[in-house]
Structure formats: C-alpha cells, structure tokens
Amino acid sequence: MGNAGTNISDTPSFMLTGFPEMGALEPLLTAVLLLLGAGSVLGNTLILFIVKEEQSLHQPMYYFLSLLAVNDLGVSFSTLPTVLAALCFHAAEAAFDACLAQMFFIHLFSWTESGILLAMSFDRYVAICNPLRYSTVLTDACVAYMGLFIITRSFCMVFPLPFLLKRLPFCKANLLTHAYCLHPDLIRLPCGDTTINSLYGLVIVISAFGVDSVLILLSYVLILRSVLAIASREERLKTLNTCVSHICAVLIFYMPMISVSMVHRFGKHAPEYVHKFMSLVYLFVPPMLNPIIYSVKTKEIRRRLHKILLGTKL
C-alpha cells in the first residue's frame, strides 16, 4: 500500500466539534444540554425505582418501561461526557478506539430503543385486541425473552461497525461534525473505499428502524380497528387513553430521527449548526421526555412521585 493512506495506528484521535459559530450563545446551549442530561438521569432513575417499589406496576408494560429507562440512561451516559467536554472545556479530542466505542454504544442504544417501542406496541395490541389472553401470552418469561432478543438483535447489528471502520486507512483531516462519534460522520473520513460500510449501514437502518416503524404502525391499525368496534364512546376513549403514553414515546423518538435524516439529505445548504442541533435534539430530548410522559399518564407513578417529593399520599 505504501503511502496511499495513513494507517489507523497513525490516527490516534478525532477532533470533536462544538458550536463555535454560535459564539455567546454557546454557554446557554451548554446549560440547556446539562439540564436535559440531568433531567434524563434523574427521571429515568426515578422510573426504575418506582417500578421496583410499586407492586401494582409489576406487569409487562412497566417491565418494558423499565427497559426503556435503562436504555435512555445509556444514551445519556454515552453522549453527555464528550458533548460537555467539547462545549465547556473545548477538550474536543477523542482517541480512535474511544470514538469507536462511543459510536458503538450510541447506535446500540438507538436500535435497542426502537425494539423496545415495538415490544411496547405489541403489549398494547395484546392488551386491547386479546385482553383475555394477555396474562398467558405476555408472561414474565416471554417479556424476559423479548428483552433479551431486542438487546441481542441490536448488538449483532452494531457489532460489525467498528471493525468495518478499523480496516480502512484514514488520510483526511479527522474533524467530526458533532461533539460525539456517529457512524455516518465517521465514514466520511477514510480515504479507502467505504461502499461496504455505507451499504451495511443502510441495510441495518432499514431492517431495524424501517421494519420496527412499519410493525408499530400495523399494530396501531389493528388496535384502532378493535377500538372502533367498541359500542360505547366513553369505553373507546378509555381504551385509547391506555396507548397515549406509548404513542408519545414513539413520536418523540421517530420524529427527531426523521427530521435529522431529512436535514442531512435535503438541507445540505443549511447552516452547520442546524445539523448539529437536530442531532442533539434526537439524542437528548427523548430520554428526558419519556419519564415525564409516563409520570403524567400513569396514576401509580404519579402517586409514588407525590409520596417521594412531599412525603404524603394523594
């Protein structure tokens, strides 16, 4: 190969990018992201504690919610350190292996969240369309197997990504667009052929996000058909109300992701900070909003929160 490219051993680090173009607003953005990160950690920790302590929440829907909370904590802990380092201390450098590890975990948690939301939609489908079979279909063992399958599927999808990158020579300036490492950002930098990386990335996006979103939509079509068959309007609204939290969780996960994708594809002439901001919304907002949504919509969680915060029962 000669001097055709710089080997990975000669590429010890990547430069992460904050928001230098925002100037005086950068400290405000840092404070907002720190607040979102702290809210996410506190909210999801409280959800895990409440589900563990509240006996009435020991049922499939809340087991999936606990898995979602653990996953959201993972998203926060895997992104917040480098983002704050880049924004607060301008320590905008990540070692090559550390960058690959961060990329692995960010994508792992993203695909896992998609799988959890699909499992939660299946839970709502069984609860509404086959309520008499709910306890026999969604047993504790079934929930455990579903959780294990979701994590294994995500791991198997993401595992090849670091190795596919490691085989490539890097000879361009190792400047990343974001304050964290993402696969679409990293595959712009090698001077070798990245066709396999791009194709593999496309395949796993379609087979995970694409399939999951279609199945979630299908489950709600079936749920809506079942709900419309209920004679009483009050009963229809009551039944649909049990899906509101999950619908909100799906929307706050998929809408920012679709927005990021649209900006990358059709907003090529948009300012650089727009791309960065949309990606931060995608990573930081859902983990913070999920606990709030479920706390507002779940009576048992509200009651326990009230007891924790005020030391009294409602």
From TrEMBL:
Protein name per the record: Olfactory receptor
Membrane spanning stretches: 28-51, 63-92, 104-122, 143-165, 199-223, 244-265, 277-296
Name of the gene this protein is made from: LOC101643269
InterPro entries associated with the record: GPCR_Rhodpsn (IPR000276), GPCR_Rhodpsn_7TM (IPR017452), Olfact_rcpt (IPR000725), OR51/52/56-like (IPR050402)
Family statement drawn from the similarity comment of this UniProt entry: Belongs to the G-protein coupled receptor 1 family.
Membrane topology reported for the UniProt record: Multi-pass membrane protein
Main location: membrane
PANTHER family: OLFACTORY RECEPTOR (PTHR26450:SF20), OLFACTORY RECEPTOR 56B1-RELATED (PTHR26450)
Domain G-protein coupled receptors family 1 profile: 43-294
Alphabetical keyword list: Cell membrane, G-protein coupled receptor, Membrane, Olfaction, Receptor, Sensory transduction, Transducer, Transmembrane, Transmembrane helix
Gene source species: Echinops telfairi (Lesser hedgehog tenrec)
Transmembrane found in the keyword field: yes
Subcellular location: Cell membrane; Membrane
